[in-house]
Write a structure and sequence with these properties.
MetI-like fold; 68% helix; mainly alpha
């Protein structure tokens, strides 16, 4: 009786394995995500879209007047101020946060400083709203603690033109949570720089400046730009800090939306919805740009 030898599989050939059937239970893990997206993203956006086309002064009749009112000087000034503050704090926060993260991670500083920096960044990036505004008022207000100490030293910052309740003061307050957020986002990208890349550039005779100019910065640039866009979106959507700090006197889109939705004089729900849709459009563009840049940076980190 002869036995048939088992066929010898060719090198590189895939072994025949039964296909694993996906159980419906494996999709239960994503159910909370889709519920969150539907309840807190899709439904509110749909509500904004419908409300932005309604005339609240005419029995909610369909109208395009709300979007036409977005081009009035006061509304354009509010958008301009919000975009300007967001750009300034995003760029300054990105530069300062990147330099700080680089100094701690690759600058040869003691390791315990990285732990301290990351802990502070995690706390400070989430410390916003009314508590942050009050903290700066108590510190840098006209009768704040630091202001009083500087006055005792003969340094009168308010006499020199500084005012915490202005656009510059708001930018300083926003920087408190902008640069720690940059540290948290850019730290993994800096960690992703492989030692082999620096060693290879040094073996080829490249100087440290040439390494950063032709190797490190092109790799980190998508992450830096993506993080800057994220900081921009984080700033332009802030409302409680600005309102508590300035009392609504500074024209910002978020403050204007609050005035249109709950104000006694400027009450116009439809215009408030249209203003919010403008912010949704800006945030959508920022998210798409961030996603594109994030994919490009992940190619280097995975290689």
């Amino acid at each position: 009786m002869t036995t048939r030898a088992a066929p010898i599989s060719e090198p590189g050939a895939r072994s025949a394995r039964p296909a694993r059937r996906r159980s419906g239970l494996s999709y239960l893990g994503v159910v909370p995500f889709f519920l969150f997206a539907i309840l807190f993203m899709l439904i509110p956006i749909a509500f904004l879209i419908v409300g932005s086309f309604q005339d609240s002064a005419n029995n909610d009749a369909i109208t395009l007047k709300n979007y036409g009112d977005l081009f009035t000087p006061s509304i354009l000034r509010a958008y301009g101020t919000s975009i300007e503050i967001s750009l300034v704090t995003a760029i300054a926060g990105a530069i300062f946060g990147f330099l700080l993260a680089y100094a701690v991670i690759l600058g040869g500083l003691p390791p315990f400083l990285r732990t301290a920096l990351m802990t502070f960044s995690g706390v400070a990036s989430n410390f916003a709203g009314v508590p942050l505004a009050l903290a700066f008022i108590f510190t840098l207000g006209q009768v704040g603690l630091l202001t009083g100490l500087l006055n005792n030293l003969g340094i009168h910052i308010y006499s020199a033109g500084f005012n915490l309740l202005t656009k510059t003061g708001l930018e300083i307050v926003y920087m408190y949570f902008q640069f720690p957020l940059m540290v948290l986002i850019i730290a993994p990208a800096i960690d992703g720089l492989k030692k082999e890349w620096r060693e290879a550039s040094e073996n080829m005779g490249a100087s440290p400046r040439q390494y950063w100019q032709y190797v490190a910065m092109p790799i980190l640039l998508p992450s830096i730009l993506g993080s800057t866009i994220l900081l921009f979106g984080n700033s332009i959507g802030a409302q409680a800090t600005a309102y508590q700090l300035t009392g609504g006197t500074l024209p910002l889109v978020t403050v204007t939306i609050g005035a249109q939705m709950s104000g006694d004089v400027l009450h116009n729900d439809g215009l408030g919805y249209a203003l919010a849709m403008g912010l949704v459009a800006i945030m959508g563009i920022a998210i798409v740009a961030y996603s594109i840049l994030q994919r490009r940076s992940e190619r280097w980190l995975r290689s």
